[in-house]
Amino acid sequence: MAVFSAQEYGERLRKTRERMHEQGVEVLLVSHPANMNYLTGFDGWSFYVHQGLIVALDHDEPLWFGREQDSNAARILTSLREEDILGYPDHYVMSKLRHPMDFVADILKERGWDRLHIGVEMEGYYFTAEGFRVLGRNLPGAVVKDGTLVVNLVRRVKSEAEIEYIRQAARIAEKVMNTALETIVPGVRENDAAGEIYKAQISGTAEFGGDYTSLCPIMPSAERTSSAHLTWCTDRRYENGDIVLLELAGARHHYHCPISRTLFLGEPRPELQKIADAVIGGLNETVAFIRPGVTAEEVEAKWRESIAGTGVNKPSRVGYSFGLNYPPDWGEQTLSLRPADTTILQPGMCIHFMPGIWMKDFGFECSEPLVVTEKGCELFLNFERKLFSK
Amino acid sequence: MAVFSAQEYGERLRKTRERMHEQGVEVLLVSHPANMNYLTGFDGWSFYVHQGLIVALDHDEPLWFGREQDSNAARILTSLREEDILGYPDHYVMSKLRHPMDFVADILKERGWDRLHIGVEMEGYYFTAEGFRVLGRNLPGAVVKDGTLVVNLVRRVKSEAEIEYIRQAARIAEKVMNTALETIVPGVRENDAAGEIYKAQISGTAEFGGDYTSLCPIMPSAERTSSAHLTWCTDRRYENGDIVLLELAGARHHYHCPISRTLFLGEPRPELQKIADAVIGGLNETVAFIRPGVTAEEVEAKWRESIAGTGVNKPSRVGYSFGLNYPPDWGEQTLSLRPADTTILQPGMCIHFMPGIWMKDFGFECSEPLVVTEKGCELFLNFERKLFSK
């Protein structure tokens, strides 16, 4: 049943404790669904209510807390002890009278952890400002501090078992992109193409079943390609002359492999082809440069040098760390390829090199996800880098 | 292009201002993607970075703020004025050096709004505790207060145009459930069934194109049905004797119509049939009771009375307000059918009556989404209420 060995979960917990110790965090509240999964294997769409793990330096296993009706998921999916699975009654859910962090504060008090240094995921999606306020009000003797990246930074360097799941996700991602390139033709409704893409993602390959991805398929057409993060346009039919950006992914046990390509319906305009050539040239040069020991900002500088003089302007980051994740993002909020990010690349880091271009009227995307190896990097995908057209 | 008339957006803004005035909120920061969409039509998967609307009582239109690369989406999808679309540079994104709320605080200072009563969505997924801290640090003269439900409470009563989109979503939901009931047979991989379900959701019907839903398909099988919110089990094949819970939905322009049913592969065990009969009997009685003027807790009491003596135990809420939404939830965090919720039902409120049962070894689900009308309620679905088996 478990997606990883007990030994691997143990190692993750050990590294998390080590980092807690370094950062002066005695108790860590883990609300991020990917971090919960990473440490225990817990996996459900219950993160829309407050739930989490409590990792305490003086307790050997994490505690799970969450809504009572979701607690059997912890029993089925994790090896946590029965006495460490703490479900709260339903009257804590979305109530004006009580907050789940009241319940959490009671746990901390009962265990004598209410006067310690408590780390919380301040910048996490599923912790909330109100949770922070309620927790602080209940724990006047505690020092509540930011622990957003404690587990994320452990997750940033992947094990061989994790990298293998991303390789499997890459096979799904290739199938997904091929499905998109085949399905999108003039006259087809955009949502029908999106439906086929979703089916390919979730069904996966005959060998590797798929999973939902943390971002929905980003696939704007025509003028919508001038913005990042737009999806298909429901009911619209593709037309000759459309540019279509395809920012897709495959996922295997919540490990992602992203892939971005661009499709033009018809004969691409020269200005688009010129941008495509510049971006792909820069991408090729930059990927060849990536190796352990260089910094994130050096990779970005290499990219900027590669596209100098081509007329392409790229003011935003050109990549980020990715891996295990849940909606709304498959990025890890740690490494970004941009100036001032001095992270030193290490073997096992997974980076989506994604130099997306969004201009006034249209955009272009072509990306490569990769893992840093001992000597350079391994590309996850085997997928032609070009401006596709038909 | 716009999904609703300018008049409808104007009316929503007027009601929001009215509620702000009542609650003593002079400036409202709207981070919830559904609230952003509700007030302006903005729609993209960019909510994984900080973005929002700023609604000020002394400014006639909302301001949009967000990542620069996403700002063209505001230009394309909304009728906001160019000078009210404020993109921030990429170095604010997931940085240890700057926070997007620094940018927002600067806007508030420039406009002279930094000493007012400022409402923020404290319990929203996409505001964050860190955002709250940074905003407070930047605005020592402001009173920052909770405005989580300001727009949610306006949204709770739907217009006829909104209800029509939910009716369209219902046609999609029926197709989705039929797809699930047809596809799930012993020997099929669970992820392949899920792939067909996703395709049906997104493709929609010939008349009404679909959209992604705010929860993924919740479709546990076998022992996993003992927990709420579990999805399919990738790579597993359905077996004779499996119970499968199907908590699905259709969505049209982000307006949801949820639907829950239960499928048994084989001849259902008598204990399961008994629970199904009790739940469906209670559901029928309770739905017949729903009308304007009764309270949310009275509806729940009616349900509890209906199932008294059947052996069914349901300790959690039996329904909630739903409608326009984005991941991770299609519920609206306002009305819950449970004791102590004294909300009075009004025409235009949409409720998912969802008495999900999760026991030690298995569960059962059958639900009805409905809209409160002048005299009673209208059921959105035309779908048999029973324990399905094959």
From TrEMBL, chains A, B:
UniProt domain Creatinase N-terminal: residue ranges: 12-157
InterPro entries, per the entry: Creatin/AminoP/Spt16_N, Creatinase/aminopeptidase-like, Creatinase_N, Pept_M24, Peptidase_M24B
Domain called Peptidase M24: residue spans: 164-374
Matches recorded under Gene3D superfamilies: Creatinase/methionine aminopeptidase superfamily (3.90.230.10), Creatinase/prolidase N-terminal domain (3.40.350.10)
Source organism, top-level taxon: Bacteria
Name the record gives this protein: Xaa-Pro dipeptidase
